[in-house]
Prior knowledge:
Number of helices of chain A: 8
Strand content of chain A: 15-25%
Helix content of chain A: 25-40%
Strand order of the largest sheet of chain A: 1-2-3-7-4
Distance between the termini of chain A: 32 Å
CATH topology of chain A: Chorismate synthase, AroC fold
Number of domains of chain A: 1
Radius of gyration of chain A: 21 Å
Order of helices and strands of chain A: EEEHEEEEEHHEEHEHEHHEEEEEEEH
Largest interface: A-B, 109 and 109 residues
Oligomer: homotetramer
Amino acid sequence: MNTFGKIFRLTSFGESHGKGIGGIIDGCPAGVELDMGFIQHQLDRRKPGQSKITTQRKEPDSVEFLSGVFEGKTQGTPIAFAVWNKDQHSNDYNDLKDVFRPSHADFTYTKKYGTRDHRGGGRSSARETIARVVAGAIAKLILQQLGITIQAYVSSVGRISLNKPYTGLDLSKTEDNIVRCPDAEVARQMIKSIEQAGKNHDTVGGTITAVAKGVPAGWGEPVFAKLHADLGCAMLGINAVKGFEYGSGFEGTKLSGSEHNDVFIRSKDGIKTKTNNSGGIQGGISNGEDIYFKVAFKPIATLLKEQQTVNHVENEVTINPKGRHDPCVLPRAVPIVEAMASLVLVDHFLMNKTNKI
Amino acid sequence: MNTFGKIFRLTSFGESHGKGIGGIIDGCPAGVELDMGFIQHQLDRRKPGQSKITTQRKEPDSVEFLSGVFEGKTQGTPIAFAVWNKDQHSNDYNDLKDVFRPSHADFTYTKKYGTRDHRGGGRSSARETIARVVAGAIAKLILQQLGITIQAYVSSVGRISLNKPYTGLDLSKTEDNIVRCPDAEVARQMIKSIEQAGKNHDTVGGTITAVAKGVPAGWGEPVFAKLHADLGCAMLGINAVKGFEYGSGFEGTKLSGSEHNDVFIRSKDGIKTKTNNSGGIQGGISNGEDIYFKVAFKPIATLLKEQQTVNHVENEVTINPKGRHDPCVLPRAVPIVEAMASLVLVDHFLMNKTNKI
Amino acid sequence: MNTFGKIFRLTSFGESHGKGIGGIIDGCPAGVELDMGFIQHQLDRRKPGQSKITTQRKEPDSVEFLSGVFEGKTQGTPIAFAVWNKDQHSNDYNDLKDVFRPSHADFTYTKKYGTRDHRGGGRSSARETIARVVAGAIAKLILQQLGITIQAYVSSVGRISLNKPYTGLDLSKTEDNIVRCPDAEVARQMIKSIEQAGKNHDTVGGTITAVAKGVPAGWGEPVFAKLHADLGCAMLGINAVKGFEYGSGFEGTKLSGSEHNDVFIRSKDGIKTKTNNSGGIQGGISNGEDIYFKVAFKPIATLLKEQQTVNHVENEVTINPKGRHDPCVLPRAVPIVEAMASLVLVDHFLMNKTNKI
Amino acid sequence: MNTFGKIFRLTSFGESHGKGIGGIIDGCPAGVELDMGFIQHQLDRRKPGQSKITTQRKEPDSVEFLSGVFEGKTQGTPIAFAVWNKDQHSNDYNDLKDVFRPSHADFTYTKKYGTRDHRGGGRSSARETIARVVAGAIAKLILQQLGITIQAYVSSVGRISLNKPYTGLDLSKTEDNIVRCPDAEVARQMIKSIEQAGKNHDTVGGTITAVAKGVPAGWGEPVFAKLHADLGCAMLGINAVKGFEYGSGFEGTKLSGSEHNDVFIRSKDGIKTKTNNSGGIQGGISNGEDIYFKVAFKPIATLLKEQQTVNHVENEVTINPKGRHDPCVLPRAVPIVEAMASLVLVDHFLMNKTNKI
């Protein structure tokens, strides 16, 4: 099950230390102009080595399109693409061949498949998200044509939290710092905290908040494939994600119905709601208000320090991993969150075309 | 998109004030003995009028199987079923025909489809979850054969919260009280809080926690259809759900990697983990530990009090809804959460059969 | 796998001697006016006992809609329906409980599922096609709005064949006789042949030809889900079907390319082809010409005469089936062929909406 | 919709004159040893320039695996692969940029997508079938482990037909001649006929027959995804295919039921049938007998001679195509038929694992 989406479908492939990461986008409408600079820029936001707080693996991560594009435009045919791996240090993993690293997928892959590619986490590496960013960039280009924007930002790192709703922030400042938090002062603290974790050979988690503006009312399927259920599924499918909430989320469970309900009002733009605890989605369908949600990322499991664990013959062993790793996944996960949200929205845009004659 | 699941698939139908609610289960293995008492019991846990803190709509909610069962066993063929509606008071909704109730799906359905059945919320009514409970009960019977149990309970109502992990609770006591909280004292406070909300013609939200024990290592698809992503999608597809987290969840984002990692150890039962921040799932695949997660429910949108809103011609109107409604969805949602989790687990059990020759 | 279609999806249920046959149509656009007389008429064309050359099982086969329709129109929500069985004579099958009838599904069902409902063929009975005719009737109503007609007719019974292309026939005469062949003289011979088979307690096969007019250019998916591949799959999924060809079909394999190619020409209606060996489909996509195809039906396997066979413990036995059966499936299969073709066309109509922004 | 299969799924990509042709196989079981020589051999059977009766385009068509294989074995993860194009002569197509070639997909692609890659037919080129042969070769390796073989051969070219059932042929001789017909004398006539067509700058069609031996009873889904319906869909999805029949096929429609029925008998291998008009499939499910079917291929539309047609502005034009083309698709289609049949069988093998607990 390496396919995501119902009509606009991404099937991804690749391993951390194999030939590369890529995918096929099927169901992309014809005639979309592919702004290659834009697509590469999204990859650059995700790539390793982009700042002092990310892994130092050096990968240009430039995307090559293999099919489906002719004279700069999509053809309605499958769009295959690949990002070739360049800077694998597979030998760093030799010692880990038969070891199950704590809180990694080594153990579960072995149990499921009876085999695994141990080099750099193989398929379970977050390097797989490259495919999502490429496909998401194309989805973003489609959404742009429809007047829709998606912006994500880091809203907490460990215990350092940006205690403001997105409406009180200037999201245009998100990319002004390396941690991708739109508040400069909080960003400074976050960076410091990540650097400290790195020095300790430890890692930190955090949350990302995302906002989609301009989604028209009527997108989403009301029962199982609710718009927020598909968004949640998309987010929970990203490596290291442990939770998802939209609109008022977990905090909203503490309110009474009369505090929580979003009253409809007339406005010059038609029917709007006074508040937006619904997070832009009611009954699983967008209502035209901003869609916003928050995603929880655990601290990365790879620690560059000694740890106890067990190997494949159930012997206890001590590991001391090498390799080049991020002390915090959050800054590089921002474009991934945006990409997955874009895939969901384009998919629902296309599905929504089919419910009237 | 009224189908849930990849191999074990439920397609549901029905409206709150139509002929009934039902569904077709396709992909159910042959030879499963259907314990009709068990299935009806699950429906009884969900049905209206079961206690003083639920809606007083009187529905026996007894399920009729229409196909796929012969001499008490499943045949591998589609299992159709229906629960016929008996106690509709459709006239209660006449005044709401053209009105968009706050935080309901009235507005979004109309925007999406250009039409809607306004009686009792039509398709968007939580009465639709009957189909999930029936299908989930069959899934539970399959899981029972595999030695797997799923238990959910109310872990908070409004600001009243059960501040203990599930490991410190006796889950066999969940059904001892009408709110379905395994701690008698906290349950008492929750019931009081719901009664108070009812008196105020208001509503309250809360959270449900669920635990699956006995799931073997190896279930789940590692990339997009991660086991927790499918669980999250299932939960977010339940009416009124606003958030999902598993394992350490949102709180876990505040820990460091060295605090959060689950160290592997040898035990007489094979490889286990010392802690279980992973919530029984690593890299999207079960690791054999308990799977646990928490679901956030908003306060129900239907208030039996005067509210401002807008109608379909964009006039502002005042509504004062009648009808019979729950002041709190949580107690009746417990079997729904269990049902949806069971559907996901059986689906992954069946999928998992296909990854070796 | 009891679901047919990608966007407009029918999931069917039911057995010959169970409570009834029905289904859920999901993905039907909202706002379609359901002409109940039209839908029932399609069922009447398929129902048993309609003439002296069909089985004498007496079933009114009237459809009841259970959901998805409000004030006579589809709501975009799932449309459930059932046709309740009335005239089962299940005892006729008691002797066949453990016997594998020749060329039936008794043996293969038992091998696949380890169990089967033996009464009247259970799920493998052609009575299941009721669900297809109901869903197909709704699809036809949608196609009517788009100016598309589908007409099928019996083009051969045994060795009696209508040796004319459809273009030389007046298809409005198809329903003028009980065998549904538009040529009165050939129809007379066909009826005689079926009656003779009935007298012999034997059965006959034949072919049905179908024509869709008015399908615009551009429907179909060019690689795996070619329009004719989906039509072929639909036809081969009908009980007793052994072959499918479209356009020039098997005969066309004998022509040279220069004889076979359809030359494009200008006309007042835009670009047309001079001939139509392509059967209205090129590269898997409709080209605006008539779509036509032919379907082969084997003689029905149920003979009301003594036959040798084997039972479930591998003993050789002689059977002498009772029950009420058709000597020829063709006349009643005409509306089924039309129904399945309509499902495919509506599905591609809806899919085709998604390939441009 | 460039994905084929339900569990073992091929998603293909690529154009005739783009970078290459390839695909992703998702859902392949882990632990399958990939015999690279075997896979390349299947491609060699399909490749251009292999004999004097095929196109002279020179392509080594060697496959490169990009993911999913580690130490020679499948990992349960997606297997991406590509065959890079080497010998495109795109300029041959410059004159055809705006022209709709008769019986090609030029017109219908333009109508569907509003755009097309005109070079060598773009996506509609039969070069796309490379992806099917690679995936099919892996499927074949799985079937080999299960003791199943699939063999196809050319059973007619134009009016030259091999008038024998497969049971009267020595299929091991199929590869002994360049036309892939197991009867040497008929093969000689076929080759002569193809050479004559080539000299006339014309083309010829024909039929391919295929036989699968060793499929156990119980594979197939009984209603819509009948085993033969999926085989038919697979075959009709191959370029130039116009018809499909299995077992007794169209000829069988002329028999009476008592002539056509396959009587069950006891044998030392368990229950068998005396005859096999069913073609190894009853009620959509395999019965353990040989599965056999026939596929009709039209004469290729590309003629290297002057033809009348119309261009995109509806002007009538004369074309005189260049390029390198096959006068007959049949010999190279034999491995494609085998590949598609293998994909269907493996898919049903895996699906069949899920219908018992």
